[in-house]
Design a protein that fits this description.
45% helix; two-stranded antiparallel sheet; mainly alpha; binds heme C; Cytochrome Bc1 Complex, Chain D, domain 2
Length: 347
């Protein structure tokens, strides 16, 4: 009898958590408008049913390796990614700011481009960028190929032009031949961007969390497991969910308290999505970043203001959820986030 009662309590609590989780989910998404809510839910269902998932009811889902990659394009993209000729004075490559051996970032608050020019927004990792629904913090590029044009012509990054880049690469006979073999044409804006994007699509990073999601109970330690549970129960997964553990919706930074008033010195880059749409409701709205490999990508936030993962988690709890997270929860969440580090990164 007592055993039974214990069991019904457990069932009761599981139901309460489930209902609370869904309520938080609905509250946040209703902010984005009805239509987006519907399509997001649909997207989640589709992504879950598209592959065999043991734990299909979790708000996060296992990563899928890309199936139809063209190996020659990936190889060409890798070479271009490391080629400083994509910059004005042959000094800066994509890898200068997105070091694959360093989590796909440059470990600085703001990146340094050609002639020592300093940007005003933190560089995200290129790992798993193919999972993002749009590229850049403000979502101004719809695809990776479209994104690639950004840094090449950005005056504080590579400060070049497509004309310059195309003519430099065409002057390299070996490289030009390689393009002809792969694309049947010499290097041009379209195939350079395409090869870079194909390479980036290869950068998905399965982690221990994915193994757990696929049913391997021993993949996570008890602390990491508890970290995941509090990550869900505090409502982090209202925004950081799906295959990327983020990267599939926009959200305001400072939902419960005003992050920007608190920090001060508001810059144009803090306007986020507003810079693209000019809609008042998009002020301070950003693409929710993926948390995969987040342990490797300090400092955090679009303004690079948070130096440690602990402090980023504390701020998220406060500004996004209105909670002062207990220190035990913070420690365990950080351990869970660490388990999202890919097991086969470039090292
Ligand atoms: C000087 C440093 C620098 C260089 C060089 C650079 N990037 Fe970036 N990259 C950044 C910064 C900073 C951002 C964020 C900009 C923003 O969101 O407004 C970014 C954003 C991105 C993103 C979007 C990721 C996301 O989560 O939204 C991708 C993909 C990317 N870069 C790929 C590349 C590629 C490919 C190249 C080479 C053609 C390149 N980058 C060159 C600094 C750099
Ligand atoms: C309401 C949506 C929302 C909720 C809830 C939320 N986040 Fe975030 N999170 C964001 C947004 C938006 C950003 C990007 C903020 C920025 O830099 O402008 C972010 C950024 C982060 C970052 C920094 C990532 C990086 O690469 O810079 C971490 C870490 C993070 N969140 C963890 C958490 C944790 C842990 C929780 C739960 C305690 C949580 N988040 C809850 C929306 C949310």
């Amino acid at each position: 009898m007592t055993k039974r009662r214990g069991l019904s309590w457990i069932v009761f609590f599981i139901s309460v958590f489930f209902i609370m989780g869904n309520a938080i989910y609905v509250i946040y998404f209703s902010e984005e408008g009805e239509s987006q809510t519907g399509s997001l839910l649909l997207e989640r269902e589709v992504s879950v049913s598209a592959h065999t998932v043991k734990r299909a009811n979790e708000p996060i889902s296992p990563i899928r390796k890309p199936t139809n990659l063209n190996a020659e394009k990936v190889e060409l993209g890798y070479a271009l990614f490391h080629d400083p000729r994509l910059s004005k004075d042959d000094t800066v490559s994509c890898a200068s700011c997105h070091d694959l051996f360093s989590g796909g970032v440059d470990d600085t608050k703001f990146s340094v481009g050609v002639d020592g020019a300093v940007g005003d927004i933190n560089a995200p990792t290129v790992y798993n960028s193919s999972l993002n629904f749009v590229q850049f913090w403000d979502g101004r590029a719809k695809s990776l190929a479209e994104q690639a044009a950004g840094p090449i012509t950005n005056p504080v990054e590579m400060a070049s032009s497509w004309q310059q880049v195309v003519s430099k690469l065409n002057a390299d006979a070996d490289l030009s031949d390689y393009f002809i073999r792969v694309y049947d044409e010499k290097p041009n804006k379209k195939n350079i961007a395409d090869a870079l994007a194909e390479f980036e699509r290869s950068l998905v990073t399965p982690s221990r969390v994915d193994r757990w999601l696929q049913g391997d109970d021993s993949a996570l330690s008890p602390d990491e497991m508890r970290g995941y549970r509090v990550f869900v129960s505090h409502g982090c997964t209202a925004c950081h969910q799906g295959e990327g553990i983020g990267g599939n919706i926009y959200q305001r930074f400072g939902i419960m308290y005003d992050y920007f008033a608190n920090r001060g010195q508001i810059a144009q880059s803090d306007m986020g999505r507003f810079n693209v749409t000019k809609r008042e409701e998009d002020r301070f709205v950003f693409k929710v970043p993926s948390l995969r490999n987040v342990t490797l990508t300090a400092p955090y936030f679009h303004d690079g203001s948070s130096e440690t993962l602990e402090s980023a988690v504390i701020q998220m709890g406060y500004f996004q959820l209105g909670a002062n997270l207990p220190s035990g929860d913070i420690d365990d969440i950080v351990k869970f986030l660490n388990a999202l580090t890919g097991e086969d990164l470039y090292r």
